Amino acid sequence: MKLIRKIKAPCPKCPYKLGLVQTTANPCPQCRENRYQTYERFQQRFLTFAERGEAMICVVSDIHGCYDKYRELLKVLCFGKNDTLYVLGDVIDRGPDGFQILLDMAQRPNVVNLMGNHEAMSVDAISYLLGGKLTSEGDGKKALKLWFCNGGDISLFDFLQLDSEQKKVIWSYLLAMPLYKEIEVNGKRFLLLHGGLDNFSPERPLEDYAADEILWCRPNPDTTYYADRYVVFGHTPVQLLTDGKGSGPVKIYRNENAIDIDCGCVFPNGRLGCLCLDTMGEIYV
Predict the structure, then answer these.
(1) Is there a single domain that holds both residue 244 and residue 209?
(2) Which of 82, 103, 202, 203 is most buried, taking the most CB atoms under 10 A from its CB?
(3) What's the pTM?
(4) Are 38 and 62 part of one and the same domain?
(5) Are residues 216 and 138 located together in one domain of the fold?
(6) Helix or strand run (H / E) with residue 24
(7) 167 burial via Cβ count (<10 Å: 0-12, 13-18, 19+)
(8) Domain check: are 204 and 266 in the same one?
(9) How far apart are CA 72 and CA 262, in angstroms?
(10) Residue of 248, 250, 224, 220 whose CA lies nearest to 238
(11) Are residues 65 and 97 in contact, defined by beta-carbon separation less than 8 angstroms?
(12) What is the pLDDT of residues 213-241, one digit of tens each?
């Protein structure tokens, strides 16, 4: 992984000291001129990891059609074939290029995409439009209305621009998305899913949770889950958990082992948050 050569020395004029960002939307004139920011704490943790030349495992969520931010994140990560990126759903809707992002992800075997509530809505709505059977119980017209009320109209336009072969790729990719993934990184256990776990009990098996309990869950700010593993999720913009009271740029929200990485990138003043599971370092674009 050739990350070090792309990171310059910290800018002494930069007012931020918390992480690494590579973006043109940078308030520091010197950093903006060089198209980078470096932050001391993240640099200390992330560069040490990069120097080992090992593969990197990261997680991101709720890209919502922001193709430019998605591509910029891959660039910042120097994302290579030996790295892995877990995507916790909601790639589509609200922004204009969700299916274009999914098409790119479908070509990358090291990008693992989980089902989000927006992907689930799209599957039912498109099934109805194509005359197929809904994957969940319900009325097709209501499924289409629900999707459109949640930003699906712009995604449908994007989907219709695809050729027939691309539509087949996307459709197979959507239907294969799992609800959750359990992984272990450097001795730490992680449960990755889209929204959280409604009606949670530590004794309840994961396979007993209904899809809606995972995809539509809205945790409270003080929600905790398991004591022996991290639960990483998106769906709920961190601005809702902090009630907009946080100072400075939007940051990933942590409450003990519960971590919300949805930084509302599609909304004003939001950004795309990414968590490196190897180091627990945070990356933003």
Answers:
(1) yes
(2) 103
(3) 0.82
(4) no
(5) yes
(6) none
(7) middle
(8) yes
(9) 17
(10) 250
(11) yes
(12) 999 999 999 999 999 999 999 999 999 98
